[in-house]
Amino acid sequence: MLTDAVSPRRRKNATLNRMTPRCGAGEVASGCWVVSSCHPFQSCYDCLRISARGVKIGHLLIATKPTPDLMIVFPEPTSIRDIEANVERLGSLVRLQRDAASEEIDIGWWNHPEVTELWHLEDDRDWDWRALISSCQNKPLWHAIAVRCHEGQIQGAILYRANGVSRIESEKGSVFIEYLASAPWNRDWLTDRPRFRGAGECLIFTAVRHSYLLGLGGRVTVAAIDNDRTVRFYKNRGFEAIDLVDGGTIVYELPGLKALEWLDRMAT
Amino acid sequence: MAFNTDTYVPVTGGVNLASRYVRGDVDDVCADASFSDIDRHLIQLMQLHPSVKVAFRNQDLKRLSDSDKLSFISDMNDVLGILPSRARLHR
Lengths: 268, 91
What we know:
Structural class of chain B: mainly alpha
Oligomer: heterodimer
Largest sheet of chain B: none
Distance between the termini of chain A: 25 Å
Order of helices and strands of chain B: EHH
């Protein structure tokens, strides 16, 4: 959200600032501090000197105020755990485009040497992410999002819609997750040495945040195959089983209260 | 940010959704696909909350500046009780 009126250097600075917690220049909308008083200073190159107290322009310290995080603006920094190094790595949440989906997921995910032959048994082996994204191109309520690791590889992807219905809280809306998968090399049942952990949860949490910011109270609904792994995963995160549909699929919903608890826990 | 990474996320979805899980009163198609992130957010708020009326000086999105749109979103958040800081991703 950097306007053309901003100088290229400042725009670059602002982009850099977005990667840093609790600082940023005036035009950065999400997750940063806004320096609204700084707007008249079009030639201000000192925006990098922003702290929690304010921005220093020469000898002048202008107090800052936190911008309301009105929406999720992509790309957004995040982190996922590098299992081998046992550290959190900087990653980014990005909108998933058709070309990336085709090349990096539809082809790239399933040709990885470390993924065992068991991938044939995976529920998502036939998913065509490019086609899925094509089908929701003109639908603003649909969101295709991926998480990239520090090396740029897609480690997980999600497709959800914001026009779902809550079954727990009647007449309330919900975000419905249509598709969610992590990269095959991040599944411990497909490889001996999974690379990253947390990509999928990061994407689910993005859906929760989106649900909240769209006035849906953080409620999220998913439909997943009934097995021990799925039940454990969703119940551990506060989801409640609300329905059993044909073919052994359980529908889970994250109630508003649980969503708010999760949001509050992650925001502090 | 630290997620609870005790287990790996299972593959989820890909099942035909029963219509009872989708709102019938929301038209999710938009003819103009060239919307920005702000436009998209605003469109979603208006589509999802058609009963919410926010008086604003201009109802034509194309004639609003980005800062006006942000004010519009902020006004809608006030009406809907959304506290954006709550959904901040702590890093």
